[in-house]
Amino acid sequence: MTGEGGAALAGASVQVKGTTNGTTTDNNGNFSITAPNANVTLLISSIGYDQQEVAVAGKTDLTVALTTSTKIMDQVVVIGYGTASKRDLTGSITKISGKEISDKPNTNPVASLQSK
After folding, report:
1. pLDDT tens digits for 27-74?
2. Which of 36, 41, 87 is nearest to 64 (CA)?
3. CA–CA gap between residue 57 and residue 53 (Å, rounded)
4. Could you tell me the CA-to-CA distances from 82 to 8, 65, 67 in Å, in that order?
5. What is the per-residue pLDDT for 49?
6. Are the C-beta atoms of 14 and 42 separated by less than 8 Å?
7. Does pTM top 0.70 for this prediction?
8. What angle is formed at CA 36 by the lines to CA 34 and CA 41, rounded to 5 degrees?
9. What burial class does residue 93 get, using C-beta atoms within 10 Å of its C-beta: 0-12 exposed, 13-18 middle, 19+ buried?
10. N or C, which end of the chain is more exposed by having fewer CB within 10 Å?
11. CB 47 within 8 A of CB 21
12. Cα end-to-end distance, the chain, whole Å
């Protein structure tokens, strides 16, 4: 599995389409997955790249190169349990530096975020 420029793509998600059977690529972009039969389709995705569907068609070795996504990443906000577009948010958003939290004497870092 490679990304832009032919570099190995670690941590890419590989899933057998229509099942919950999946795995991720290792640091060298390699993966191993058990499929129910030899004619399945794999869904391959990674952050910053477009998802690809690859037909296995009985092959045991695959070479896949993901293409960089053209989606605008600054319009996506990562939240604790998923993602949302900036336009869909109803609450306020603020940035708090690590220094603002680390200099508070709380044992719970979340408590340091109160009233920020």
Report:
1. 999 999 888 888 899 999 988 888 899 998 888 888 888 888 876 556
2. 41
3. 12
4. 26, 26, 23
5. 87
6. yes
7. no
8. 85
9. exposed
10. C
11. no
12. 43
